[in-house]
Amino acid sequence: MSIELIWAIILSFAIFAYVILDGFDLGIGINYPFIKSKWERDLAMNSVAPIWDGNETWLILGGGGLFAAFPLAYSIVLPALYAPLTAMLIGLILRGVAFEFRWKNKQQKNIWDQAFIIGSYTASFFQGVALGAFIQGVPYADRAYSGMWWDWLSPFSILTGLAVVIGYGLLGSTWLIYKTENRTKRNMQILARRFFITTLVMIIIVSLWTPYLHPEYFDKWFSFPRILYVLPVPLLVFIGSIMCFRSLYKNHDLQPFLWSIFLFLLSFIGLMISIFPNIVPPSLDIWQAAAPEKSLKFLLVGVVIFLPIIIGYTSFTYWIFRGKTQNNENYH
């Protein structure tokens, strides 16, 4: 267990935490066009109002940690993904502004609702595009990005962009199943079933396409005896899909959301299997890209202190605002 591997695990944890926590509140915006009544839209907003901005803490930790612990990877990946990441940040800014302004400017609430939808879809789609461009590989030479400006745009990256939008829609709808009651909950159950089916289709397509992007990916999934070690992942996806499907057709509150997270976790593990030990696919590994060992150890002290604090206050916030969101609650 080298210091470089420890940092890779920390960054992986931060990225996954961001995907789940900011994913379901981005999913609120993705579900928004399908929520017609004003009071239900307010209810959906109120369900994430106390926690949505804290969820983005993990994005800062992931980006800052990559810069500090793996500066070479940061200097290669960022130029390759400037366009989709900039579009993602613009979407996040638009969503955040719309979230605040829709409560303050009630005369133009519909305009800010549309801005919230556009920001949520934009941020989600370009997160997925950046992910797809990263998986398909980032060319570099002489410790710098050597590709073209539009290399990030490809059929595979567009597919992963759509997959993330649909997956976040599933997280958002199952979150609202957990947080709402009566008619709103029933509507979200119907919507979540549709998102679940399309999410499962996307998982299958991306999973079948990814091994053919690079020979290294194909060997990790289909060569013997490696296939015996990775076989539990698709089997668990199958089991998790059945459990998620069952929970969506029963009157459960929390289970659909938890099983959706489980499917995201398995997808994330599958991604890690494909690219590990590389941090810049297909050939730059975590040891080549890492900062000096002394720097990593020094930075680890700060992480050991502050990471439990972040996890603690995040958990405390979710505990305080647990349970169903009521119609008479308002965000100010």
The biggest sheet amounts to: 2 strands, antiparallel
Distance between the termini: 47 Å
The shape, in one word, is globular
SSE pattern, N- to C-terminal = HHHHHHHEEHHHHHHEEHH
CATH class equals Mainly Alpha
Amount of beta strand: under 5%
Sheet/helix structural class: mainly alpha
- Stated plainly, the CATH topology is called Formate dehydrogenase/DMSO reductase fold
Share of residues in helices: over 70%
- Number of E strands: 4
CATH architecture: Up-down Bundle
Any descriptors?
two-stranded antiparallel ribbon, Formate dehydrogenase/DMSO reductase fold, 3% strand, globular, 15 helices, single chain, 4 strands, mainly alpha, 332 residues
Structure notes:
The chain is mostly helical and 332 residues long. The chain has a single domain, classed as Formate dehydrogenase/DMSO reductase fold (Up-down Bundle), CATH 1.20.1630. The protein has helices at 3-31, 38-48, 52-55, 57-69, 71-80, 82-104, 109-135, 155-179, 182-209, 215-222, 226-230, 232-248, 255-275, 286-289, 293-320; strands spanning 140-141, 144-145, 278-280, 284-285. The chain has a two-stranded antiparallel ribbon. A two-stranded antiparallel sheet has the order 3-4. The longest helix has 29 residues, at 3-31. The protein is globular, with a radius of gyration of 20 Å.
